[in-house]
């Protein structure tokens, strides 16, 4: 059947409405490896512009590290380009299991299973381990991939108010009739940058005989004294039943994710998780690069320590300048703007000043919570951050938002 003219017109109207509402997302083309400074083509067809990257998940600065690149090249030569198969048929090489063992050691768990991405891990883990006799109790701000994974599972779904331990306890009491209760949370909440209260969550889980699931994608490699994650930071290392995380952020920045945790739960994912069973194995070149990443971070906490220093410095610069930011202990530092169009306009002006940052708005964040999410990297030097704050101040003055609180910004620009 030919593409419906009626459908085409409706989609065109939908796209126009996104543009008119200031909700249309534009992609920018990077003509360089990932790093603190990148060359960007924006808008499409424009001359390349060198800018400071303030919005990458390249937390440890390893995405283009020469030793990681070299290891990836060697992996390409020795293990090939792709597996052309899923894991249980003929898609498992020796290096896949090596990386799973390194992740298990790093995360302090019992076993680990690689997935094509953390989104795939989150899509598969709940359906593979829970049934309609169970309940999933999730923090209301968990990542969208967790929400999607929960939708695929037949277990009952419930939520608790963000980081509200009293409300979580009420939910655990309410669901004592269920076979299993699984508490579900991000380790670091990716939009706000705050950390889950894992010490209290584990305490409640032990009191009410519940399982604990943590997506630690925005923590693995740099949160905690040795960068093992939020469970290390909160003093509950080894006490989390299921951890999912990614190789696509601090741990090399390519792709790939995993489910790590109790042996039996990981084995259930190996047997039943559909994204694992029906997706090609992670490419050898990525596995080889990731193994080198772990060599580097096991050797020293230097990059993790520098990232923390950069985070503290950047947070103080924004505070001193008078911006409305979200408090937190992570290198995710949102500058709150509340209005979607304002967020896009400021991001565009920052780009003109040589700073690459992106406006976040609905549906990525709730309506009326638009922001520019800045992210720090160990690749940033002090001069990068000093230049970035100069640009933020210049653009902030243009829009008269410096020193303004949420109410004042909304009064000027609306939600």
What does this molecule look like?
By secondary structure, the protein is of the alpha/beta class. It folds into 2 domains: 30-59 and 301-413, Alpha-Beta Complex (Aspartate Aminotransferase, domain 1), CATH 3.90.1150; 66-299, 3-Layer(aba) Sandwich (Aspartate Aminotransferase, domain 2), CATH 3.40.640. The protein is 44% helix and 16% strand. It contains 16 helices and 14 strands. It has helices spanning 5-20, 66-79, 87-90, 94-107, 118-129, 144-151, 165-174, 198-208, 230-233, 263-272, 274-277, 284-299, 302-321, 340-352, 382-398, 406-413; strands at 29-30, 37-41, 48-53, 111-115, 135-139, 156-160, 181-186, 211-215, 242-246, 257-261, 332-338, 355-356, 359-360, 370-375. The strands form 3 sheets. It has a 7-stranded mixed β-sheet with strand order 4-10-9-8-7-5-6, with helices on both faces. The mean pLDDT is 96.
């Amino acid at each position: 059947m030919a593409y419906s003219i009626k459908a085409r017109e409706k989609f065109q109207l939908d796209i126009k409405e996104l543009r008119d509402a200031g909700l249309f997302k534009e992609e920018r083309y990077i003509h360089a490896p990932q790093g603190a400074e990148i060359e960007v083509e924006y808008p499409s067809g424009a001359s390349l512009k060198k800018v400071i990257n303030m919005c990458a998940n390249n937390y440890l600065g390893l995405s283009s590290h020469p030793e990681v690149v070299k290891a990836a090249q060697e992996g390409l030569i020795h293990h090939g380009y792709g597996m052309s198969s899923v894991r249980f048929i003929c898609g498992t090489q020796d290096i896949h299991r090596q990386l799973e063992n390194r992740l298990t050691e790093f995360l302090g768990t019992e076993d680990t299973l690689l997935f094509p991405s953390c989104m795939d891990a989150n899509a598969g883990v709940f359906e593979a381990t829970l049934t309609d006799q169970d309940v999933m109790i999730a923090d209301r701000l968990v990542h969208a991939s967790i929400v999607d994974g929960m939708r695929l599972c037949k277990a009952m779904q419930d939520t608790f108010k963000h980081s509200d331990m009293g409300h979580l306890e009420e939910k655990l009491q309410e669901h004592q009739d269920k076979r299993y209760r699984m508490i579900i949370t991000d380790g670091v909440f990716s939009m706000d940058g705050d950390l889950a209260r894992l010490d209290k969550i584990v305490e409640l889980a032990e009191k009410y005989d519940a399982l604990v699931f943590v997506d630690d994608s925005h923590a693995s490699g740099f949160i905690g004294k040795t960068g093992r994650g939020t469970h290390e930071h909160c003093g509950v290392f080894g006490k989390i039943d299921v951890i999912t995380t990614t190789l696509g952020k601090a741990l090399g920045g390519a792709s790939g994710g995993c489910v790590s945790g109790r042996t039996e739960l990981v084995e259930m994912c190996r047997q039943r998780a559909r994204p694992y069973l029906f997706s090609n194995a992670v490419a050898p070149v990525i596995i080889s690069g990731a193994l080198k990443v772990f060599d580097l971070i096991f050797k020293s906490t230097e990059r993790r320590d520098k990232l923390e220093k950069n985070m503290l410095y950047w947070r103080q610069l924004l505070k001193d300048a008078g911006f409305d930011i979200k408090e937190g202990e992570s290198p995710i530092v949102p500058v709150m703007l509340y209005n979607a169009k304002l967020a896009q306009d400021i991001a565009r002006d920052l780009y003109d000043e040589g700073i690459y940052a992106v406006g976040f708005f609905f549906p990525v964040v709730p309506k009326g919570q638009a922001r520019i999410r800045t992210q720090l990297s160990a690749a940033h030097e002090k001069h990068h951050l000093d230049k970035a704050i100069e640009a933020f101040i210049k653009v902030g003055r243009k829009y008269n938002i410096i020193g303004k609180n949420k109410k004042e910004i909304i009064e000027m620009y609306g939600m």
